[in-house]
Structures are given as C-alpha cells and as structure tokens.
Design a protein that fits this description.
It is built from 8 helices and 20 strands. The chain is an alpha+beta fold. Strands 6-7-8-3-9-10 form a 6-stranded mixed beta sheet, sandwiched between helices. Strands 13-12-11-14-19-20 form a 6-stranded antiparallel beta sheet. Strands 2-1-4-5 form a 4-stranded antiparallel beta sheet, with helices on one face.
C-alpha cells in the first residue's frame, strides 16, 4: 500500500491542454474513483499516474518516491484495462503469471501468488481453461488477478466493467468492493458511471475539462455539492434545476419564487440578495408529501420501476422535471400533480458562475 500525491500536474498534446494543474492526494489504502463525462480527462490522469503518458509539468509521488519520470514498470502500480487483454493461447494460470515470468520471478513464487489470487477471485477451478472458455466476468477477474499477483503498491482500474452487461456489472462491482476490503490496497478507479462511483469509492474525484470540480466522500458530494455541475452529475436520476428569483431576504434566509410550475414563495436557509436570479436544485427523491413547499406540474409520463416510480413533467430547458412518486400516490399521466418538498433540502446556485449559494 502507498499514498499517491499529485501536484500541479499538467498534460498537453501539442497546443491542446487536457489536464490543467491538478492537485490531488489519495491516502494509503483508500479507494478513489475518478468520475466525469467523456473527454473530461479522467483516463488521461490515470495514465499519467501509471506512467503511460508523460507529464508536461508537475509531479507524481507514490509513497515516498517521486515517480514523475520513472518507467511504468518501476512505479509499483498494476493496471486493469477496459479490454481484458488476455493471451488467447495461454491458460488462466499462464495469463495471471505471465508478468512475473517476464521479470524472472522464481517459479515457486509465481505458483504461490497465482494460487492465492485465484482463491481470492474464485478462479481456482478455472486455472487450466483458455480465455475463450470463460464468461466476460471471469475474463475480467483473470485480468484483475494478473494485477494482484504483482503485489503492487497501487491498483489502477480504467473503466474495467464497461464491456459487461448490466447484471454482470453489478456483480463485478460487488466483487471489486470486496477485493478492496480483503486486500486493503490503494485503488484508483476510472468510470463515467456515477452509480459505480457512489457504491465503490471512499473518495470521489469529479472532473470536468481536465480540472477537478470537487473531491469528497460519496455522500458528501451528494449532500453538499460545490456547484451545479457536481450537483447534476452525482445522483440518479439527476437533480432538477429550476429558474427562480429571490423575492426578499431576512437574516440567514431568502424567500424564493420559481419562475414557473405554480409554486408559492418558499424560504430557503441561505443568504442571497433580493431580486437576484438563481437556480433552485431539487433532487427527484426529495419530493415528499409532508413538504411545506410545492410545485404544480402536469405529468407527461410515469415510469413504474417496481420499488419506485418516477413522474416526468415539462419544465424549462431540455430536461423534464423528474419527481420520485410515493407508492400510494394518485399521480396520473396527463393530470396536474402537486409535488411537495422540504425547502431546507433545496439547493441554490448562481446561474452565471454555476457556484452554490450557501
């Protein structure tokens, strides 16, 4: 295990800057997840830590060592890629031990490490099979086992589950979480799926356009986002964003009126000047029949998902208003529905900067 420290890290491809002075600290034994939309720089940042890309400037420390200019093989990291990258002519055992054989590791040590990793990953009955005889999940476990046998200081995962179907992704997600608990190793995991980030991470790093937007524990980012980007990215379904105006302010509270959806003014426990244009953020699951504030919305579509139902109503912009409906709700498609919520759970954002108003 080792900590990872990144300071003022930059990466440019020619005249194009893709990583902009990133500062990040990951503690030893921590499970950190890089999350963000496609093209945000999360995989590039991971590859910089792995040594597969050269940093334009800045430093990378793994443990006590500055590894910024050190070869990937000497950094003490092991990487699991999106593609399994298994040798088709080799057995599971041979694939898992290949890297150790290339470094001249003693055969007895290789056998011991492969058997130990196979037990951890429930592959001990499959060691003689070839990759074509394995399912997608089993192949991914072999790829993870190939990393485990190297006993690295840091495990790096680059969207390892994206090739799997939905059910298998859930299963593998649980297995990776259990693996982290069993090994206690430092792990850095890249995904565009915020559900993976929320369920796996000790620490989430939200990236956008090569910059870190916010770092924190999953529930910290969910409950206390710094800006409208993080608020909209963390949480599923995503947060509703509604234009509003501050009608008055009193002490540490502001009275806000939504621009549409038949809302009466409601008080929000934040400071904002009267007359200011704001964006009100309300999570779909925070609508509650006991709330003191309300929205009048015509429900266009209702999705019944078994344990939960969602109503979708027309709202400003391209995104519909999403409301999590109680099991016994009377909402019907095509009818106007009164959705109540607790104003204390609403978020206010500056529409120009996107920053949270606190």
């Amino acid at each position: 295990m080792a900590n990872v420290e990144v300071k003022q890290l930059r990466k440019s491809f020619g005249s194009v800057d893709v990583i902009h002075g990133v500062d990040l600290s990951i503690d030893s034994g921590e499970f950190a997840v890089f999350v963000g939309p496609s093209g945000c720089g999360k995989s590039t940042l991971l590859r910089l830590i792995a040594g597969l890309e050269d940093a334009t400037s800045g430093t990378i420390h793994i443990g006590d060592a500055d590894v910024t200019r050190i070869e990937p093989a000497d950094r003490g990291v092991a990487m699991v890629f999106q593609s399994y990258a298994l040798y088709p002519h080799m057995s599971v055992e041979e694939n898992m031990g290949f890297g150790l054989r290339m470094t001249g590791t003693d055969r007895a040590v290789i056998t011991e490490r492969v058997n130990k990793a196979a037990q951890i990953l429930h592959l001990d009955q499959l060691l003689e099979r070839k990759p074509k005889q394995l399912s997608g999940g089993q192949r991914q476990r072999v790829a993870i086992g190939r990393a485990i046998v190297r006993e690295p200081k840091v495990f790096l995962f680059d969207e390892p589950l994206s090739n799997l179907d939905a059910e298998l992704r859930v299963q593998m997600r649980l297995e990776i979480a259990k693996l982290h608990n069993d090994l206690g190793a430092t792990m850095i995991y890249v995904t565009h799926d915020q559900v993976e980030a929320m369920t796996l991470a000790d620490k989430i790093v939200v990236l956008r356009s090569g910059r870190i937007e916010q770092v924190g524990a999953p529930l910290e980012l969910y409950g206390d986002p710094d800006n409208i980007f993080v608020a909209g990215f963390i949480g599923s379904p995503k947060m509703n964003f509604l234009p509003a105006i501050v009608e008055s302010t009193s002490g540490d509270a502001a009275t806000v009126r939504l621009r549409e959806l038949g809302s009466a003014p409601f008080s929000v426990p934040v400071q904002a000047p009267a007359g200011a244009e704001v964006i009100v953020g309300i999570r779909p699951e925070h609508f509650d029949s006991n709330g003191t504030a309300h929205i009048e919305a015509r429900i266009d579509v209702i999705e019944h998902l078994g344990g939960v139902s969602y109503g979708y109503a027309a709202a400003s912009g391209d995104e519909p208003l999403t409301i999590a409906l109680a099991e016994n709700t009377a909402a019907k498609a095509g009818a106007v529905f009164t959705a109540r919520f607790d104003p204390a759970r609403a978020f206010l954002f500056d529409p120009e900067t996107g920053l949270r108003i606190r």
